[in-house]
Amino acid sequence: MANETNFTNPLLGLKLPESIELPKIFLSLFGIWFTFNFVEALFTRDVFGSKAPYVGPSVQWLPGFVKRLLFHANASRIIYTGYGKFKNSIFRVMRNDYDLVVLSTKYLEELRALPDTKVSSIRAHIMNLAGKYSTTDILIESPLHTQTLQTRLTPNLGLLVEPMQKELLSTINSSFSTITDTWTPLAVFPTILNGIARVSASVFVSPLAENAAWLHGSVHYTENLFLVVYILKLIPSFLWPFVSPCIPAYWRIHYYLRSAKAMVSPIVLERRKAAAENPDWKPPFDFLQWMMEEAKTPEEQNPEKLAHRLLLVSLASIHTTTMCTTHVLYDLAQYPEYIEPLRQEVREAVESEGGWNKQTINRLKLMDSFIRESQRFNPPSLLSFHRVVIEPVTLADGTFLPKNTQICMPSGPLGMDSTVLIGDKPPTEFDGYRYFNERKKEGGGHRHQFTMTGKDHLHFGAGRYACPGRFLAANEIKMLLGTLLQEGYEWKFKEGTGRPKNWNMEEKIVPHTTAELLFRKVKQ
Ligand code: HEM
């Protein structure tokens, strides 16, 4: 029987039972530390995988889960440090859910050429979005929506400009209805989010463009989904089946999915009926119709699955485009000297084209340059081109990538590297004319456009699976900003404040979502 006499801890003045001796405490702590590392090694991904040098907190004995949590808070510093040391080779960081192997862009061409059976973009999306726990596992079934974006939506963007601009003007008129000629506060992110959600719905599923339930669901499905993914990434994946049903947002995702199916399925069935019964029926000009026409297998043609894909396209598009536009508005408030030249550019383009069309947008070269510069300073993520290695790969220089490794490229640091960045000004200097000036040079025509991907510009990924919606995003951002300028809006920070701070979540960068700026409308 344990000795029941007590002694007093001289440091804390606490009475501890004599039976708890220091060696036992150390043994217990070691036990906890060992168990965490062991469980983590069993259940977290690629702990044993790649031989790439690890970059992160250098304290060797720290348990992996602590290193992962520290990445959560210090991702930017860790990624920039890794880039500084290994920008021409390869390094590994320990994110909460998976280890990521960050590769130099010198491997880009080689990796782009590999077939999907070797490295997969879809697998990376599913891995990063917690797959079936966030309803994103449908991505594995087929690339229907991606192909439809590439082959039907993008070629038709020119014809969409006019209706999109009308929709934008009407949403701006209602969202900015409180703005007069005196400075009035307005929260930027939610206002832009509402506008982009409406214009996106008019392109994706025209009958629901002004349906409040659809608009609410298309925005809140995404927000709840990312909340679930965020929470799950904090815990080992073997706990996901048990923990996910305890998260209220998990049930909200399912609710929005069910309600999207209930709204979209009747539209699909009605359209099929109309097409079958009326030879003169004119198919609506929207993304849903194009997906219906491109769907080949019964699974792809299933109305509920089409609804699910519409939500996933909304997920890929609405917040990404809103974040980029919000950054642009914040940057214009920080560098107001660009407002008048941009307004001038918009006026000239609209005037010479007699309104908004594809050519009007093509003329907005300074705006294109400003948006790209804003994205360089505020990228959606510091890492891009995520791929999962399906079969072991040995690259030409002998670098070995084991099966199941998640690879990616340092898109953020590349934009701040003076040996990569073009232009006359140093990387740390914001220059809205940077790409505008480069495009004027010999051979610079299209190379430095916002939507052009390349070794120096990976914010839309690269290769076959580069963002298929980037051309739509660019048009939406330019039309929204252009319409604001055309209508005579001005904006600035509130007295005594500066650019609202970005939020860093692991490698992701999000603009401040609640900050208010002051707006006014000047007479034109
Ligand atoms: C500024 C806004 C946007 C940004 C920054 C952005 C960024 C990205 C990035 C980095 C990828 C991964 C590419 C890769 O791994 O190579 C991606 C994929 C994707 N994006 Fe975008 N995106 C934006 C807007 C949009 C829009 C408007 C749509 C839809 C109309 C869209 C649809 C998609 C889809 C479907 C994929 C997955 C492609 C696949 O792997 O099958 N995105 N996006």
UniProtKB/TrEMBL annotation:
<keyword id="KW-0479">Metal-binding</keyword>
<keyword id="KW-0349">Heme</keyword>
<feature type="binding site" description="axial binding residue">
    <location>
        <position position="467"/>
    </location>
    <ligand>
        <name>heme</name>
    </ligand>
</feature>
<dbReference type="GO" id="GO:0016705">
    <property type="term" value="F:oxidoreductase activity, acting on paired donors, with incorporation or reduction of molecular oxygen"/>
</dbReference>
<dbReference type="Pfam" id="PF00067">
    <property type="entry name" value="p450"/>
</dbReference>
<keyword id="KW-0503">Monooxygenase</keyword>
<keyword id="KW-0408">Iron</keyword>
<keyword id="KW-0560">Oxidoreductase</keyword>
<dbReference type="InterPro" id="IPR002403">
    <property type="entry name" value="Cyt_P450_E_grp-IV"/>
</dbReference>
<dbReference type="GO" id="GO:0004497">
    <property type="term" value="F:monooxygenase activity"/>
</dbReference>
<protein>
    <submittedName>
        <fullName>Similar to Ent-kaurene oxidase acc. no. O94142</fullName>
    </submittedName>
</protein>
<dbReference type="InterPro" id="IPR001128">
    <property type="entry name" value="Cyt_P450"/>
</dbReference>
<dbReference type="GO" id="GO:0005506">
    <property type="term" value="F:iron ion binding"/>
</dbReference>
<dbReference type="InterPro" id="IPR036396">
    <property type="entry name" value="Cyt_P450_sf"/>
</dbReference>
<comment type="similarity">
    <text>Belongs to the cytochrome P450 family.</text>
</comment>
<dbReference type="GO" id="GO:0020037">
    <property type="term" value="F:heme binding"/>
</dbReference>
